[in-house]
Amino acid sequence: MTSQPVERVGFFTDTSVCIGCKACEVACKEWNAIPADGLDLLGMSFDNTGQLDANSWRHVAFIEQPATQPDGEMRWLMASDVCKHCTHAACLDVCPTGSLLRTEFDTVVVQADICNGCGYCISACPYGVIGRREGDGRAWKCTMCYDRLGAGLRPACATACPTESIQFGPLDELRERAAARLEALDDPRARLYGHDPDDGVGGQGAFFLLLDEPEVYGLPPAPVATTRDLPDMWKHAGLAALTMAAAVVVSFFGRRR
Does position 237 have pLDDT exceeding 60, yes or no? Predict the structure, then answer.
């Protein structure tokens, strides 16, 4: 009896309904036993984590936008960021120990017991998602609650989100839902980010509906897998090596004559 292939799953985060409650951050930390970040607010923001790293696998950004017109109103943009679980994951390509792997759900996880702390994955990630934990040295990031998925449960963050800003399910189904939501929102500034399989990372396993440019949220506007050109580089390097070897052989036999 052959097992049926598992459908790819992912996150769709609709930032238009995010209220910045941080329930996702708390649920993620509690379920995965992640160390605390501290309670210091950063500058003039309500953000106390600042970015994704080894101790923040979910990060709720608070972006205050002043009014652009005299009679206009300021607005808050809030969004829960997370590892993108890229289709073409550069972190996977560069890991020398096999610590990073792609699961049967087509998500990318770090096996901490195999990680040697080399940091290659950190520099390879185009989103700056992965970090090394102080006092530990190993790389850590979102696993999309791999242990929960195996038990038929949703990730902790999606379960805790009170507004369904974080939605979890089959990726193709989420893309259809996101397209319908974008159309219904009818906001000229709104856009989908990371949903396109033809983008620089082959599409994200965690994508977003944003209410402004990606840069406003601290996201790269056109992310590219940092290992995308490696096959061509190795090909050219191999041809160069063969050419050099041929030149050495020709030179050697030319001298003998």
Answer: no
